[in-house]
């Protein structure tokens, strides 16, 4: 409840401001304006505006930084069932993801939460998701429903990459607009807000770290990762095959680049 209370308090302070200072746009306003409204379908605009106009809690997660091939990273962001299937094979999760359409998935955590997630806009630097879900469990014994907008902004920096690999440093940040039904029930709002935001913070950090680990395996053991990709039975065959191709391409490009650099004549004076 402490986190939710702090978020609500911060929002109030930002709204008040001071008479002598020009008002600066809040993180929530900046995030709202980052959505490319004119590039969305009419249906997507309606869904997102419904959440934006009645947001219960806004939360910006801490920026995460890691090394990863850009194509592999984008594929994993757009197809999270790959990650959850790997976790399942490792025996560390009960989370199940089923792809119901090219841009939509159904998520069940095996216990309390059921969610549908739709990618409504996606570029290498910006992904916007709309989700709708329900929760019933230990924290709130009755069924609670709500919707959310998830925005992921990504940047790729190859300047600091080692010349032999050119693996970019990926920096990404997530914003969440959470809309909880029956928001008049403040106890319910604070309880669910704290639960979901705390979970989001932990999952975002852990998932980021895991993606970085996958990239290391792609570089150091591409054959092993390709074999693992073939075992992802909960991933649609076409997506599984595409992931395998991206893994092989990422490693091939690095090997080719490393060979080119090694073959270049040295410019160091003796």
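Q: What amino acid sequence fits the structure above?
A:
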């Amino acid at each position: 409840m402490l986190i939710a209370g702090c978020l609500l308090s911060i929002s109030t302070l930002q709204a008040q401001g001071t008479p002598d200072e020009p008002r600066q746009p809040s993180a929530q306003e900046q995030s709202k304006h980052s959505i490319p409204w004119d590039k969305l379908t009419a249906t997507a605009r309606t869904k997102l505006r419904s959440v934006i106009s009645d947001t219960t809690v806004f939360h910006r997660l801490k920026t995460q930084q890691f090394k990863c091939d850009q194509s592999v990273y984008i594929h994993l962001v757009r197809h999270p069932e790959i990650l959850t299937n790997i976790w399942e094979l490792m025996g560390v999760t009960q989370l199940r993801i089923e792809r119901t359409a090219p841009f939509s998935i159904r998520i069940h955590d095996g216990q309390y939460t059921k969610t549908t997630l739709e990618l409504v806009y996606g570029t290498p630097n910006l992904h916007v998701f709309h989700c709708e879900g329900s929760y019933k469990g230990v924290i709130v014994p009755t069924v609670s429903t709500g919707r959310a907008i998830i925005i992921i902004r990504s940047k790729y920096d190859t300047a600091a990459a080692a010349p032999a690999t050119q693996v970019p440093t990926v920096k990404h940040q997530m914003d969440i607009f959470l809309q909880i039904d029956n928001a008049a029930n403040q106890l319910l709002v604070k309880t669910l807000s704290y639960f979901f935001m705390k979970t989001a913070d932990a999952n975002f950090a852990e998932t980021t770290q895991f993606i970085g680990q996958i990239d290391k395996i792609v570089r150091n053991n591409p054959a092993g990762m390709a074999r693992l990709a073939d075992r992802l039975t909960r991933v649609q065959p076409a997506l599984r095959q595409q992931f395998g191709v991206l893994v092989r391409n990422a490693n091939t490009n690095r090997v080719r680049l490393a060979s080119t650099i090694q073959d270049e004549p040295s410019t160091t004076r003796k």
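Q: And what stands out in the fold?
A: The longest strand covers residues 144-157.
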